[in-house]
Amino acid sequence: MAKTLSAYACTECGWQTSKWVGRCGECQQWGTVEERARAGASLARTTVAAVVGRAARPITELSGDAVAHRPTGIGELDRVLGGGVVPGAAILFSGEPGVGKSTLLLDAAARAAAAGARVLYASGEESTGQIRMRAERTGALHETLYLASETDLATVLGHIEQVDPALVVVDSVQTLASDQIDGGTGGPAQVREVAAALIRVAKERGTPVILVGHVTKDGSVAGPRLLEHLVDVVCHFEGDRQTSLRFLRTLKNRYGPTDEVGCFEMGDGGIREVPDPSGLFLSRSESPVSGTCATVALEGRRALPVEVQALVAKSSTPNPRRVTSGVDPSRVAMILAVIERRLKVTLHDQDVYVSTVGGVKLTEPAADLAIALAVISASMDRPLPLRLAAFGEISLAGEVRPVAGGAQRSGEASRLGYTRLLGSSSATLEQARIDAGLAR
């Protein structure tokens, strides 16, 4: 006999329970458990194979030309996407409010329209008049760029059928809702249904769809985790509101690399790309200053020279401060311990501040040596040579380990005029200090 099943499942991780609970027992998230009723489901019923309408073909008989990357006209955006937009791809853009997501995508939509394609820009956050005003300011006006201000999913799908665009931009996925699904706008069930419907349209029509997603207070994409699994590409747009520099990174990319970064600059006339950001993260000082050291970071296939600055001052509190900006705090704490233990430099009663220039974030271990030399230079109040750059990973034993891309880092540093390079050639941190001219 058929038995009606009523189960509750977590929208984040899929954990199931027979009764409703406020907190998921697997991922420990609050308010994510929802009812999933299957009326008339039978425990003995099995899935029957359906008639195949389109037979499977050998992979060698399929051509990849129809799904090749199509450039957007923005070089930095193409770099991050792996060469351009793939037909039928679903791309998710996330970022803090006001960072420039809508401005960048409106520019990309206008460039696609200028190339002869029909583009639909659907916004649930702004009216068409507001979008038109921003387009006038950034020079993004074109006849084949269609605007729609809608919050209903069915209406947006109707616009897609009517316009028949070659590119669709939806800003944002949390503002659309379907009347076929219970729950408020922006809820997990609504976001899941809206994203699934738009992705289904993208795959069926071969039209790339770009979705803008909100972020939570910790910087992750708002909504169910399933949203990131459904789309093909996840890009995160980041930047400090106090500076004009913006970075676009890929968190997931089925059609290209995930370690590329695009550099942009926000100005009064909109957002523009920065193809060569080599000098953005270096100070303008022409004389050596204590507590500064240059390094070369690798972002994908791009080498970025970055200056690390450190300040060491006598602490007036029992617990000295350790303040960082742009670098990993735990990594800095480890480097300070190695310096004090291996080089006998007293830091336990000193306040230490470490920062990068230009707001760039250093996450790779290759910056360890530059951080260590900057701290030692600040503690001794002795500047490093002006044309010196350092990169290398520091172990707990005080060794300087080689890092990937050494030749590329050295080439970029030499191109910018750095004549002294410290890296794996200095086997230990003590030897690196001597080579840098910071010997006692």
TrEMBL record:
Coiled coil: none annotated. SUPFAM superfamilies: P-loop containing nucleoside triphosphate hydrolases, Ribosomal protein S5 domain 2-like. SMART domains: AAA. It comes from the Bacteria. ATP binds at G95, E96, P97, G98, V99, G100, K101, S102. Residues 351-440 are annotated as: Lon-protease-like. Keywords: ATP-binding, DNA damage, DNA repair, DNA-binding, Hydrolase, Metal-binding, Nucleotide-binding, Stress response, Zinc, Zinc-finger. PROSITE patterns: RECA_2 (PS50162). Residues 66-215 form the RecA family profile domain. A motif (RadA KNRFG motif) lies at residues 252-256. The middle region has homology to RecA with ATPase motifs including the RadA KNRFG motif, while the C-terminus is homologous to Lon protease. Belongs to the RecA family. RadA subfamily. Plays a role in repairing double-strand DNA breaks, probably involving stabilizing or processing branched DNA or blocked replication forks. NCBIfam families: sms (TIGR00416). This is DNA repair protein RadA. The lineage of its organism: Bacteria, Bacillati, Actinomycetota, Actinomycetes, Micrococcales. The gene is radA.
